[in-house]
Automatic annotation (TrEMBL):
<feature type="compositionally biased region" description="Basic and acidic residues">
    <location>
        <begin position="164"/>
        <end position="228"/>
    </location>
</feature>
<keyword id="KW-0802">TPR repeat</keyword>
<dbReference type="Pfam" id="PF13432">
    <property type="entry name" value="TPR_16"/>
</dbReference>
<protein>
    <submittedName>
        <fullName>Tetratricopeptide repeat protein</fullName>
    </submittedName>
</protein>
<feature type="region of interest" description="Disordered">
    <location>
        <begin position="147"/>
        <end position="275"/>
    </location>
</feature>
<dbReference type="InterPro" id="IPR019734">
    <property type="entry name" value="TPR_rpt"/>
</dbReference>
<feature type="repeat" description="TPR">
    <location>
        <begin position="103"/>
        <end position="136"/>
    </location>
</feature>
<feature type="compositionally biased region" description="Low complexity">
    <location>
        <begin position="229"/>
        <end position="240"/>
    </location>
</feature>
<dbReference type="InterPro" id="IPR011990">
    <property type="entry name" value="TPR-like_helical_dom_sf"/>
</dbReference>
<keyword id="KW-0732">Signal</keyword>
<feature type="signal peptide">
    <location>
        <begin position="1"/>
        <end position="20"/>
    </location>
</feature>
Length: 275
């Protein structure tokens, strides 16, 4: 009995809480819708700055407001902010179960992708729009335009292959440059070694004549020594002969002077006449 009573009390409490939550949600939705209406009026007057502020207030009151996200996306599209416009339309699609609302959001997404020149993705967006509303001729017409645009667009696989090829080509060029640098460096080293060898050979060549000159000088000295007359035993040298001749001349001169003095002593001396 107690358990049943407690269960009933819990159900009543949960019902009251749910009702309060529902009332709060309804109040938030109502406030959000009022803000959207005000934002729509501002947007129609091309006052996009204030309109954006009101739409954001509406979404802060009710984050799942489809009309708030969709209309904010339109405002961004008119301002040229395609990135934010794409995000808000995707947000509207996520929060709605209405095919009509999904159709409009997908159609707008297709327009945004065409502005960004993403034709293949735009084709898929228009297809989704037609799935939710096959009777819309505007979406069908835009789909045909997107298909024609996609024909001139390279497939993502080819773009990836091109990027890979460019990357491989760049790597090959880098490897080739590194290889050429290595060969040039090796050639420089070889040239340096050759220059060093040539320098050593030149030094050797320069050294050889000096050695030869020294040898030649020594050989010349030996030759001069050999050319000198060798004094034989028992013979007088030229200098000794010269000294001997000078001594003999001196002796002869002394004898001659002595004889002349004796002759002068015995001869008559003539006196001077006396007037």
């Amino acid at each position: 009995m107690k358990h049943s009573l407690l269960y009933l009390l819990f159900l009543c409490f949960a019902s009251v809480v749910a009702q309060d939550a529902d009332k709060a949600k309804q109040k938030a939705i109502k406030k959000a819708n009022g803000l959207v209406v005000e934002a729509n009026e501002l947007a129609s007057s091309d006052d996009f700055v204030l309109a954006e502020m009101e739409y954001r207030k509406a979404l802060s009151e009710e984050p799942q407001s489809v009309v708030g996200a969709y209309n904010l996306g339109l405002t961004y599209y008119k301002e040229g902010n395609f990135e934010e416009a794409l995000y808000r339309n995707q947000q509207a699609i996520k929060n709605t179960v209405s095919k009509s609302e999904k159709h409009k959001a997908f159609h707008n997404i297709g327009n945004i992708l065409m502005k960004n020149e993403k034709c293949r993705e735009a084709v898929e967006a228009y297809k989704n729009a037609l799935r939710n509303d096959p009777s819309d001729n505007e979406s069908r017409y835009n789909l045909a335009l997107a298909k024609d645009c996609a024909k001139d667009e390279k497939p993502p696989e080819e773009e990836d292959d091109k990027d890979d090829k460019d990357k491989d080509k760049k790597e090959d060029e880098n490897k080739k440059e590194n290889k050429d640098d290595g060969q040039n460096k090796e050639n420089d080293n070889n040239e340096g070694d050759q220059d060093k060898k040539d320098g050593d050979n030149e030094n050797e060549d320069n050294a050889k004549p000096n050695d030869e000159k020294e040898d030649k000088g020594e050989e010349g000295d030996d030759k001069k020594e050999q050319e000198k007359p060798q004094q034989q035993p028992g013979q007088m040298s030229p200098q000794q002969i010269k000294n001997l001749l000078e001594a003999m001349n001196n002796e002869e001169q002394k004898v001659q002077e002595k004889m002349n003095a004796q002759k002068a002593k015995g001869a008559k001396v003539e006196t001077e006449k006396d007037w």
